[in-house]
Amino acid sequence: MVYRAPVPDIVFTMRHAAGFDRALADGLYEDLTADLATTILEEAGRFANDVIAPLNREGDTAGVTLKDGAVTTAPGWKEAYGAWTEAGWNALPGPVNFGGQGLPVLLNSACVEMWNSASMAFGIGPVLTMGAIEALIAHGTDDLRARYLAKLVSGEWTATMNLTEPQAGSDLAAIRCRAERAADGTYRIKGQKIFITYGEHDLTDNIVHLVLARLPDAPTGTRGISLFLVPKFLSDGTRNDVRCHSIEHKLGIHASPTCTMIFGDHDGAVGWLVGEENRGLACMFTMMNNARLAVGLQGVAIAERAYQQALHYANERRQGRAPGAAEGMSPIIEHPDVQRNLLTMKALTAAARAICYMTAEGIDRAHRDSDEKARQSAYERASLLTPVAKAFSTDIGVEVASLGVQVHGGMGYIEETGAAQHLRDARIAPIYEGTNGIQAIDLVMRKLPLADGAAVRAQIAAMRATIVRVTKETHPAFGQTASRLRDAIESLDRATSYCLKAVAGNAPAQALAGATPYLRLFALAQGGAALAEMALAAAGLIAGGDSDPAHPARIALCRFFAENIAVGAKGLEDTVMGGAGFLDDARLALVS
Amino acid sequence: MVYRAPVPDIVFTMRHAAGFDRALADGLYEDLTADLATTILEEAGRFANDVIAPLNREGDTAGVTLKDGAVTTAPGWKEAYGAWTEAGWNALPGPVNFGGQGLPVLLNSACVEMWNSASMAFGIGPVLTMGAIEALIAHGTDDLRARYLAKLVSGEWTATMNLTEPQAGSDLAAIRCRAERAADGTYRIKGQKIFITYGEHDLTDNIVHLVLARLPDAPTGTRGISLFLVPKFLSDGTRNDVRCHSIEHKLGIHASPTCTMIFGDHDGAVGWLVGEENRGLACMFTMMNNARLAVGLQGVAIAERAYQQALHYANERRQGRAPGAAEGMSPIIEHPDVQRNLLTMKALTAAARAICYMTAEGIDRAHRDSDEKARQSAYERASLLTPVAKAFSTDIGVEVASLGVQVHGGMGYIEETGAAQHLRDARIAPIYEGTNGIQAIDLVMRKLPLADGAAVRAQIAAMRATIVRVTKETHPAFGQTASRLRDAIESLDRATSYCLKAVAGNAPAQALAGATPYLRLFALAQGGAALAEMALAAAGLIAGGDSDPAHPARIALCRFFAENIAVGAKGLEDTVMGGAGFLDDARLALVS
């Protein structure tokens, strides 16, 4: 199935849900304009449609192969990656002084969505390179920047994040990989890392590994971890002491090599310290936050792809006679239950996209606003939204892909159709870059208390302000949008108070027990408010005489979300407020 | 990962949720006793654990191969199937006069669950044989019964259901496969069928195909479809004119061959009419209802298997320090969010099991009760519950398997772990034997109006009676069970009135639009009531001095379901009551 980048929806979401117009007006984006941004996104969309998307299925079936330590990617992948970097897409958000275009994270996020819709296995590679660029900008020495940044910005080289070890997955305190100081100021790295995405491949001449390891005299736990840059090839062209030992046989993203990497089989891999000794985890978190947003965008991306494929199939496939339809078989899209599935897919995707883009705008403003207070509150807002963007979007990525299989009926279960691949691909995103359970814990334990709760209160106040405007909107197509969304926001408000109190009162189990349903509740309220902003903008345009059929569609989609999805908020609130009640008996129930 | 058949939970569910004890007391099951049933189930459990379960992973990786029209199953499968029929398991529910053991559908349902937990790809084969047995008992001529029933009952031969054609999936009216009358009273079948489970294989010497086809003079639509029996080998040993043309490359159940079958390449496949000409669909529905229950049991089965595997992993894997835990890494089962995932998995599985077993008991009573009114109301109850059993159980099968992957973190995405296979296997069950959307439509359009709504009203009254008893229960471990379940049941009651009114008022779109959320709402209320029945029984046993730790576990699980899952009922009610409101704009929203 072809993919067609939904550039008009993307641009509308940027402008009317994520504050792109306001950011432009505030001078955050220098000489960028809405028209120029649209042109860039249309160009990116064409590349995603025409070059990357056609490789997605073959990448899945061919996968990657490991032979004598070398990983070969699927046919066409090396050429596509080359063309992609050649066209400058990797450099889009990179710093201007290292050859980047310095364009907004928000604009790049829209592109990241499109690369990943075209192929998640393709899209995940550059996410890691981007993370390494950020880490080097923030923490690298001038020498390291001079040697590596330009080639990472252009994409001539790629980068990896080497965190996980067999005993250290979610718990990085358990890292054992060792680093020893060498006489020349470099380090020697020894140890094994697992689940290293694009740890080895044939797309580029060199690969830059960022590796967490411990110095011999390091304290135990997370305060004894340092970050090192370990290139596959050293500057003099010699091969460093690092190799790919094996690749994983995974459920999905087959075209993306997932490697077990061995550092220091011989004398130790040569590495350079990034940041200070024993402060590696802080450096890693610099890049991890943006990587979390990027993984959230993968959720949006796969949902969009699955939706497009299901919509196409539902328009083509004829079965049964729909209520009120003429003689003969109707396209299945005419059947109410199929419409519900498709609307659910589209509404969840649109809500997740809006939340991700809002997060991206927050990151931009935190870096670019001239006002320090505005930067600080934008930073808090982005920090608050990041776990929601990551977890909600990737959860709905799986849900939407699963619905996509369902819309196809029996054909959905056949691999050739491609619907099943989306489900297989989607399933990794709730796991990597911090499982969604960890995102929920991060939200409740660390993000809600930001600025003594002022960040989340401000966010809820903004949602309420949106609903006040919906209440005044008299367009009948809004249906019960206002009341349903108001109920969801009030549920969120009460659940927020509950969690803040639990965290402040040193009763973490009370908050931890409901962290996952709390995050979902947050996303329903925030997603609903964002769709309402778009619906209001659409209503305004309609009132102004704009006859684009996409505008009534946005009102209808918002209404569907409010009346059919956001209504789940009360049940989630009840669950959160139940707190740790069930935990008293949980171990009891889990051994029978 | 090993599977251990949860026989004590299975027996407890049969006795305290599904009315097994009452059925025994009413004399429905002749000389069967609870002890004998337990012994049989323990024996079945051992077979599932020791013989079938170890083949599951290899069956997935080896799959099946087609060469020169012959399908070879994975290593060990033929031997396992032989041992299974040899031990008499296929014959368990079969009619005594054809070599069966005549045991209850309820007892066999518990076995079907275990076979499918051990391996869904194994378990689906006998489901089709069982369906053919039922069709032949109900509609076959004496001659056909004499020739085929005994060998199908023993499992010496297997059977298939040939419904689907490329243009006729959910819509059987579109069937084109032709049947022509031959001079000798037989028929010649010509046409192509797709997605035929175990259409060809090497497990048995013969395969009996039941095929839907049209006579030349048949009316169009579903009233012109006839059912034929078409054996792979005729009685004289000659090969019939039917062959496997290709096998599908599927997302899961790789060890189960899914075949495209070609009938009548040459002179036409020799077939015998089952039932009357042009009445084939009615015959097919005889077997389809029980097959739907069996597929529901597959959902329970895969959920149970995924839960066991996740529970095992969560007990073994150590990461992070849980709240209140000692120094060092805790088993991840100590973390509240992991506990929530595991409890959600277990509670959904237990609720779905109870609903499936209740359905099975209804089928038994509809056939076996001496009182005609009791048979009729049991028939209506089973008819009402069948779509719920099928759709809810298979939906939660996917959800629980997906949670199982999540509990494993990164390891869950690696195929060797086995968690991902459960998700891949589970994904077919919401599709085959009538998609879950079709189950929901069946529930709302055909089952709610049964006996002018008296069937569903009786079912809701029974749920309410359970909650009255919970209200009187003073054991503090019940928490808010009574109020949460009462709310869910009242939501169901209101939504039921809404749907009944819409169907009676000839406003089908109003009911169809909410059919899927209505079915889920029904299952939450019914599942909650069933878990409450078990919790009440457990509380009674505890009060009587029984110190089995499984009893407090049942109360805790019921409470978790009520407080964390059933609370979703109100949102579903809102959605159902929203009716077709969204459909007015649906097409608007789906073209942007």
TrEMBL record, chains A, B:
Please state every residue range assigned to the domain named Acyl-CoA dehydrogenase/oxidase N-terminal: 39-156
EC annotation from Swiss-Prot or TrEMBL: 1.3.99.41
| Lipoprotein as UniProt keyword | no
Which of the seven top EC classes does this enzyme belong to? Answer: oxidoreductase
Keyword vocabulary terms for this entry: FAD, Flavoprotein, Oxidoreductase
Which segments constitute the Acyl-CoA dehydrogenase/oxidase C-terminal domain? Answer: 278-445
Residue span(s) of domain Acyl-CoA oxidase/dehydrogenase middle: 161-265
Give cofactor(s), names only.
Answer: FAD
- Every Acetyl-CoA dehydrogenase-like C-terminal domain range: 462-580
Catalysed reaction equations from the record: 3-(methylsulfanyl)propanoyl-CoA + oxidized [electron-transfer flavoprotein] + H(+) = 3-(methylsulfanyl)acryloyl-CoA + reduced [electron-transfer flavoprotein]
What function is annotated for this protein? Involved in the assimilation of dimethylsulphoniopropionate (DMSP), an important compound in the fixation of carbon in marine phytoplankton, by mediating the conversion of 3-(methylthio)propanoyl-CoA (MMPA-CoA) to 3-(methylthio)acryloyl-CoA (MTA-CoA).
Q: Which PANTHER family match?
A: ACYL-COA DEHYDROGENASE, BROAD-SPECIFICITY LINEAR ACYL-COA DEHYDROGENASE FADE5
Name-wise, this protein is 3-methylmercaptopropionyl-CoA dehydrogenase
- According to its UniProt entry, this protein's organism is Microvirga brassicacearum
Recall the taxonomic lineage recorded for the source organism.
Bacteria, Pseudomonadati, Pseudomonadota, Alphaproteobacteria, Hyphomicrobiales
